[in-house]
């Protein structure tokens, strides 16, 4: 007899620990402070504690809890499980053995001998995944040991959990072909599907009744493929898996948007349960989606409705969600989150410094689980089954709508007055001529902005925040670190300097702390990749800048050197992308408000004599809608918001921007429309692949393709860096080519940075002295 699907579930959960226990264990293991056995014990405890807590919150039915833990990245885990990435020679069945861990983290982080896998953003989120590479010679093979281990340890602790894999279509859609490969990854789907079948058989033999397969590619337009092709691929793959003789029941999820062609094909493929994103955000984009689901999904397929938003932090409108659920017209439907809760913090209950009214409007992961459980109970017995939850939802709706903290008439008026301003500056040719006064050499060297954050810097910030360090002592500490950074850059011979950003805890949070309309958390950590966590600010109201933010630090840094110093700002789109945003106004309104607040900062920097100002937009591609039909509108308002920041600066002021880990070819026209004088981009891990897009488009302004991968502890050699510069010079002349790292240096340590930047400057000098330079 098969186990019925649980009435309340989630599709994923944060895996870093409520107090970042996983992050601490990872970094201790990498640093050699604990061994593999200690690390394994630590993360085992974290997993079991998570299962216990989820059961307490209401996910007590069998298979209601998904086993979504990963040491580093779930895409890497699935790729290893199917042999898309070969296991290390000699590895045994224990995926947590020292040999396996060493191989696993070598793939994720690289070593002195090998580069790590390429990294990019997971759909339209701020999570980074590792990109598998597929060679013609790769032979897929099932490696179920880690899946079996997770299921067995949970069962021993009293929980029947649901193993989770990235689905075969999405896995191949996100995989890149190795150099020289003659077949595209999706061409090998039938072969991969058979290996997924082997994994399912192994899990079935171990007594697992439900397995979750995540297929977000089916709600997106993937470069190099079509929605119809992906839908047909899914039909073929899941028809094969569904007809396997010995398998668990299949729960296929489709997070981050609505299904088009994929809906009927999945509904008819033989899968046992289908998870759909029915969050308010998705319903706003596709209001007809609930009706299509009701008309298309047969009663033989169990529908799992993700009505609770897994990506944002606002409390659910339970009455509206219940209306959606009952409107589906099904006798049996389960309630879930729209996406994995990987994207939100653990619990609001840890927060003690949030404004009381704002805190009352929020739901993090734990609170969302209780919302899911309340809706599942209400489907059977009505709202009276969970009166406290429904009363809270009603209070949230009323108090947010009437709050004077949310709405600012002056900001609204200024935003409306700028509605027709396209933000374009003087023609770029005039700007180029005017900026010759800056005296920038060919192949200028610079960094993206941040320098390593030492323990002393972090302690000084923490002590100042806690009142243990007064303003004067804090400023002295920050100035001392700026002196150190300026001195190091001068010593290394960099051309354009930065102040290192020691005063900034995070490039978005720092600005949010100084802008009205935002609030920040103490413990609202969210995984970005590996052990890297961020605390996204919460945008709850209209945005303005009450006073200058960066001007004092930039002015001080410029006073310490005769070389040019860049002012450093975070752009409006990135501030939005890396924050939890309002759900009561259109994003474009918030983008314009932030852009105008930053324009005030740019004006003050320019007045302070800062002649180069960088406005980072690494998340421009990240917010790109997953469907092509929605992208032109997004790019129009997002690019305009960026241009508003510098719309009124003089031609002599050089505006830079930075973008990282994006598929640049998809948005090259938008990057050009930003109209920045210099654009720096990630390019090291892809070894300058992005320049094909830049070259083909005819990008005519300054470009800085990163040559130093800062997401790995490796120190690149002079030879390696020189090869990348020479590769870039095949596309960009020396007077327009900037030499810089991929991203900021905050996460690295000073010995790595000193050695890497010294090699970067040396490589640039060798190229200048060679015959490779074309002016």
| CA gyration radius, whole angstroms | 26 Å
Q: What is the overall shape?
A: globular
Task: List unreliable stretches of 5+ residues.
Answer: none
**Could you describe the largest sheet, including whether it forms a barrel?**
7 strands, parallel
Helicity, in percent? 40-55%
Number of helices: 28
What does this 3D model show about the protein?
It is a single chain. By secondary structure, this protein is an alpha/beta fold. 41% of the residues lie in helices and 11% in strands. The protein has 28 helices and 20 strands. The strands form 6 sheets. It has a 7-stranded parallel beta sheet with strand order 1-5-7-8-9-10-11. It has a 5-stranded parallel beta sheet with strand order 16-17-18-19-20. Helix 7 runs parallel beside helix 8. The chain is globular and about 75 Å long. The model has no long low-confidence stretch (mean pLDDT 94).
Short description:
The chain is an alpha/beta fold and 775 residues long. It has 28 helices and 20 strands.
What does the secondary structure layout of this molecule look like, with pairings?
Layout: H1 21-30, H2 36-56, E1 66-67, H3 74-81, H4 98-109, E2 119-121, E3 128-130, E4 133-134, H5 145-156, E5 162-166, H6 168-173, E6 176-177, H7 189-205, E7 210-214, H8 227-242, E8 249-254, H9 262-267, E9 273-277, H10 280-285, H11 289-296, E10 302-308, H12 318-327, E11 333-337, H13 356-359, H14 365-381, H15 387-402, H16 409-417, H17 428-434, H18 455-466, H19 471-492, H20 509-512, E12 516-519, E13 526-529, E14 532-534, E15 538-544, H21 551-559, E16 566-570, H22 572-577, H23 587-607, E17 612-616, H24 631-645, E18 654-659, H25 668-673, E19 678-681, H26 690-697, E20 702-705, H27 718-729, H28 750-769
